[in-house]
Design goal:
This protein is mainly alpha-helical and 133 residues long. The chain has 8 helices and no strands.
Length: 133
């Protein structure tokens, strides 16, 4: 590398874009700027590069901070149910397999409370004939 060649001239456009976006995010320092950095990193860095970046960043924290940060970054629960692609029952079963217990309870109760009284009675009749798993 000569004095006439800068380090940024030797970088790939993908990496240079990621570094510029990170610099802008650090300068702004807002939650929104950090959220906006996500799609840029996904587009400009490989999965391996993002994993290495996450690893190095976590290593700069205390073990407790690193664990809390990693856990907060992981998806939790299934989120709200999506519209049915094939049948409502198939879609509901798929969602229920991914949902957390709190989500199951919340949607079950909200769904039951929204049913017409005759549907509620039919539902109660159906579930009371079954034994709890």
């Amino acid at each position: 590398m000569t004095w006439a060649t800068s380090f940024s001239d030797m970088m790939s456009p993908q990496h240079l874009g990621a570094i510029r976006a990170l610099g802008a995010t650090l300068k702004l320092g807002t939650r929104e700027s950090w959220d906006n950095l996500l799609p840029i990193l996904i587009a400009r860095l490989s999965e391996e590069e993002r994993a290495a970046l996450a690893f190095v960043a976590l290593k700069t924290l205390t073990p407790t901070q690193a664990a809390e940060t990693a856990l907060s970054a992981l998806p939790s629960g299934a989120g709200r149910p999506l519209p049915a692609l094939f049948s409502c029952m198939d879609e509901a079963a798929l969602w229920a397999d991914m949902a957390e217990p709190e989500e199951l309870d919340a949607y079950c109760l909200a769904s039951f409370n929204s049913m017409h009284p005759r549907r509620q009675a039919a539902f109660l009749h159906f579930v009371t004939r079954r034994r709890a798993a």
